[in-house]
Description:
The chain is mostly helical and 383 residues long. 62% of the residues lie in helices and 4% in strands. It contains 19 helices and four strands. Helix 3 crosses helix 5, helix 15 packs antiparallel against helix 16 (314-325) and helix 16 (314-325) crosses helix 17 (333-345).
Amino acid sequence: MTSRWRATACALLLAALPAFAAPPPPLQPGERPAAGTTEAELWYGMDQAEKDIARSPLRVRDPQLNACVQRVLCAITGDYCRDLRLYIVDVPQFNAQMAPNGMVLVFTGALLRMHDEAELAFVLGHEFTHYRLRHGLQFWNQAKHTSAVFTSFGVGGGLVGGLAQVVGMASLFQYSRDFERQADRDGFQTATAHDYDPQAAVRLWTRMLAEEKASHSSHFTIFASHPKTAERLQDVRAAAAQVTPRAWQDGRAAYAAAMRPFLAHWLDEELARRTYDSSIQLITDLRDGAPDDSAGTLDFYLAQAYRQRRSDGDAARASDLYRQAIAHADAPAAAWREYGLDLRQSGQRAAAIDALRRYLQLAPQAEDRAFVEQYLAELEKQP
């Protein structure tokens, strides 16, 4: 079943069922559900799924990266932090979730799209609201009797699923838009109460709206169950305008340092999605104001996105960006190869030889070494 169909099925399901009579009280720090209750059933299922995620090869275990996200998570959740377990999952989609049992999933696609700790704080504040107000329990109380629908999601009886369903599980709780709006409001208040810059939320949703528009899709699946992105941006702008100015924190430098070792890998995964229009928007946004130690990497991947898209003018744009990339110390070795091949194509023999030799110096074990050496031999024979 496709993600779009899952979202549609959930929406139809909730529309067909009566609303939960009265919302449960907010979850308290250290609280666990009473045995034999629906909430205990829900937690049991999530506990079993968490065991799979804990030992998954998709789990990112890097201490610095986890410490960065954990620091923001604990700042936002306070006394609840000891009840939460963070799992960063290597999936190139914008997603985060705080499950009812305290399992916190953050996809690397979300980390790639954020520029600082403040932006992360607003996303985690949103998810914390779902967790604290037991939105998952309310959803499950409405949906638990429709086992046929949930069996078709691959979660069967009791929500126990394998790791192949990580992505599906992260989107399992397709909350109502009223719940999502409440999570936006309360999450914003939580983040600003902990001194995170309210303009970070504006910046994040401005970029998400730009990426959504660049996708040329009438159904931007990242936010299918949420209020429209334009509406969210309007709401967060209004909320930010009401906040009394003071000294805010954004944690930009610490965030960039934690993400930097993973940037190339995450961008490889982003381009593998072949959504080049939205990827170009994403990388362009990352490149604007990027620190010097990532500028060459971003220029290279932006060039790759243009080259792989192959629209009119993209080859020239890519060529300019390869040349721009090699001016930075962090440029991947492959930037020299692509630059050299462009020079070869345009007949600039001496410069092409220098660039391709530089590539082989930087990547002596390159898998394509034999091919590049052949190009060099041909160039060196030319008068």
